[in-house]
From TrEMBL, chain A:
It is a multi-pass membrane protein. This is ABC3 transporter permease protein domain-containing protein. It holds the Pfam family FtsX. It comes from Accumulibacter regalis. It is found in: Cell membrane. Residues 262-381 form the ABC3 transporter permease C-terminal domain. Keywords: Cell membrane, Membrane, Transmembrane, Transmembrane helix. GO terms for cellular component: plasma membrane. One of its GO terms (molecular function) is transmembrane transporter activity. Its main location: membrane.
Automatic annotation (TrEMBL), chain B:
InterPro entries: AAA+_ATPase (IPR003593), ABC_transporter-like_ATP-bd (IPR003439), ABC_transporter-like_CS (IPR017871), ABC_transpr_LolD-like (IPR015854), MacB-like_ATP-bd (IPR017911), P-loop_NTPase (IPR027417). Residues 10-233 form the ABC transporter domain. It comes from Accumulibacter regalis. PANTHER family: ABC TRANSPORTER ATP-BINDING PROTEIN, IMPORT ATP-BINDING PROTEIN. It comes from the Bacteria. One of its GO terms (molecular function) is ATP hydrolysis activity. Belongs to the ABC transporter superfamily. Macrolide exporter (TC 3.A.1.122) family. Keywords: Antibiotic resistance, ATP-binding, Cell membrane, Membrane, Nucleotide-binding, Transmembrane, Transmembrane helix, Transport. This is ABC transporter related. GO terms for biological process: response to antibiotic. GO terms for cellular component: membrane protein complex; plasma membrane. CDD domains: ABC_MJ0796_LolCDE_FtsE. Pfam families: ABC_tran.
Length: 389, 233
């Protein structure tokens, strides 16, 4: 079947450019919502995955799921440190960090609304285990003191956590001596202090997790097996990246599903808009359709021409929507991760996969909105069309 | 389309056409017989509702008869499927309409090239042929103009070029001068006559205008779906 030239389709869209643009903008808004939701979900995932290191292992209580639900006793932590396959640092220290993790409530800057912030007790080795974390301003806390350092998102987003300010929690005053730059990982949303000081202040006798560095990649299986086979230890080991990916799963999935559902509901409006535009185009070009059919173009060619117009409209809407969504990459946002109950700062991340999904969504709107008018155009009788001239 | 000099190009026998309105069938053409020889210029005349446009549509293959046969070049087009009929029209019929029916978003050149998209010609061959035919109708210098940049007479010339470009044996024209002033209408009729005389085309034209009809070699008069009079047969 021979079709109509692309120039015919493009020029028809150009001739009614105001309608074309308005219809495409309606579709662009839906694509924008669809893409930003996926970007938000991807941003959360990327932030938390970047938090983990490939050769780090996190050890939690069996079935704990999150650090704040976990407890690792001192004796258990001691046993872990004796396991083979753990790397040592340049100073010969075993690369293990015993870490209490607690949530505190702080008021947000601007709104003053309280939100949970993760406080992590760690050590010098804990810092070495996270090479992506650097001191952006000030200095690192000193061991054995009530000094803390705040992640950059916490320092920027909460009251009283600026450099040199004193923060009161767990019955003590804590001096903020530094601001962390954690390379857009989840540690930007945490406060770090000395692990032993935190245990005392929070009156705890168990750590939340133990993090260690593997001497080699195969070492993980040995550690996992050793923990599983020791009846004294009711602990489980996970590669740190896997653990943080799991931390993002619930929130990312929730946002993705909710957002996609919203985008689909909004898309009904855009599809109806496209349908009205295309029906108007068919009505205005009835004689033209009759002429094309009389000249020998088949019904399929007419259907494809009108469907092509609708798809081009949708593609324009898709590109505009993606361009708007792309600008969102410059925006920092934070929300409560309901898996950890703590505030998490992240950025919208646009990936090629999201761009493709968004364009596919736009084109799907074009097909749904354009098919019925195109089908109607193709079903018109030639003689009736020509009488409309 | 094959043509035998001894047999007419168009051979219509027992042609009837009715339109259904609810339970009723309204007859438009009644048991009509008619022949048109190759190279003839036939004018169909008659009052409104006489069935002349319906007859033209049936000859052009854009409508189907209720009964009867329409053989054109030996092919009974009433028996063709919709797809076959579309291909047949593309190869054998050129259309000239009262309101020109040019596609407003395409230039004169692109409008003329349109029927050639249904052939196997390359883009260069299509362009060359369209330019040649635009030259024949005296519009070589208007090839890049869009319909709204052309006068009514020029638009109808482009429409004639479009009808001519695929070299059909049959050209159907529905009130080709109906939207034109007298002088321009005369020019268009002159051009149609030229197609018959110089290129051997067969033209069937519907018109209300006796002066336009007088330019045809044969005048067929229809009334209430019946052929009532013929002049010049």
């Amino acid at each position: 079947m021979k079709g109509l030239p692309l120039a015919y389709i493009l020029r028809n869209l150009w001739v009614r450019r105001v309608t074309t643009l308005l219809t495409a903008l309606g579709m662009a808004l839906v694509v924008y919502v669809f893409a930003t939701v996926l970007m938000m979900s991807e941003g959360i995932r990327a932030t938390l995955v970047a938090t983990g290191q490939a050769d780090n292992v996190i050890i939690l209580r069996k079935g704990a799921g999150a650090e704040i639900n976990s407890a690792v006793g001192r004796d258990q932590a001691g046993t872990i440190e004796t396991l083979p396959g753990i790397a040592s640092d340049a100073l010969g220290r075993t690369m293990v960090s015993r870490e209490p993790v607690v949530l505190i409530n702080l008021p947000k800057r601007g709104s003053g609304k309280p939100s949970n912030v993760t406080v992590r007790g760690t050590s010098a080795v804990g810092g070495e285990l996270r090479p992506q974390v650097r001191i952006g301003e000030g200095r690192m806390f000193r061991p054995g003191t009530s000094e803390i350092v705040a992640g950059s998102a916490v320092a920027a987003g909460f009251q009283g956590v600026g450099l040199g300010q004193t923060l009161r929690f767990a019955g003590r005053d804590w001096l903020v001596v530094g601001v962390l730059d954690a390379g857009r990982s989840g540690f930007d949303s945490e406060i770090w202090g000395d692990g032993e000081q935190m245990l005392q202040a929070f009156r705890r006798n168990a750590y939340s997790t133990v993090v260690l560095r593997l001497a080699d990649a195969e070492g993980f299986e040995h550690i996992r097996k050793a923990l599983e086979e020791d009846p004294r230890l009711s602990l489980e080991a996970k590669p740190e990246r896997v653990f943080y990916a799991e931390q993002s799963e619930a929130l990312a999935t929730f946002i993705r599903l909710l957002g996609t559902a919203l985008a689909v509901i909004f898309s009904i409006g855009a599809v109806v808009g496209a349908m009205i535009t295309m029906f108007a185009a068919v009505a205005a070009r009835t004689a033209e359709i009759g002429t094309l059919r009389a000249l020998g173009f088949r019904r399929g060619a007419v259907l494809l021409a009108f469907l092509g117009e609708s798809l081009l409209l949708a593609a324009l809407g898709g590109v505009l929507g993606l361009a708007g969504a792309s600008a969102m990459q410059a925006v920092d946002i934070s929300t409560t991760n309901f898996q950890t109950f703590a505030e998490l700062a992240f950025r919208f991340v646009l990936t090629p996969s999201i761009a493709l999904q968004s364009m596919a969504f736009a084109l799907a709107m074009g097909v749904v909105g354009g098919f019925i008018p195109a089908w109607r155009a193709a079903r018109l009788e030639i003689a009736e069309c020509l009488r409309a001239a | 389309m094959s043509t035998d000099p001894a047999s007419p190009l168009i051979r219509i026998r027992g042609l009837s056409k009715g339109y259904r309105r609810g339970d009723q069938v309204i007859p438009v053409l009644l048991d009509l017989d008619m022949d048109v020889a190759a190279g003839e210029f036939v004018a169909l005349m008659g009052p409104s509702g006489s069935g002349k446009s319906t007859l033209l549509n049936l000859i052009a293959g854009i409508d189907k008869p209720s009964s009867g046969t329409i053989e054109i070049g030996g092919v009974d087009i009433a028996e063709l499927s919709e797809g076959e009929l579309a291909d047949w029209r593309a190869a054998n019929v050129g259309f000239v309409f009262q309101f020109y029916n040019l596609l407003p978003v395409l230039s004169a050149q692109d409008n003329v090239e349109l029927p050639l998209l249904l052939t196997g010609l390359s883009s260069r061959q299509r362009a060359e042929r369209a330019r040649l035919v635009l030259g024949l109708v005296g519009l070589a210098d208007r090839a890049d103009h869009y319909p709204n940049e052309l006068s009514g007479g020029q638009q109808q010339r482009v429409a004639i070029a479009r009808a001519l470009v695929s070299d059909p044996l049959l050209i159907v024209a529905d009130e080709p001068t109906g939207d034109l002033d007298r002088v321009t209408g005369e020019e268009i009729l002159g051009l149609l006559e030229q197609l018959v005389v110089e290129m051997g085309k067969t033209i069937v034209m519907v018109t209300h205008d006796p002066k336009a009809a007088a330019r045809a070699r044969r005048l067929v008069h229809l009334e209430k779906g019946v052929l009532v009079d013929e002049v010049g047969a």
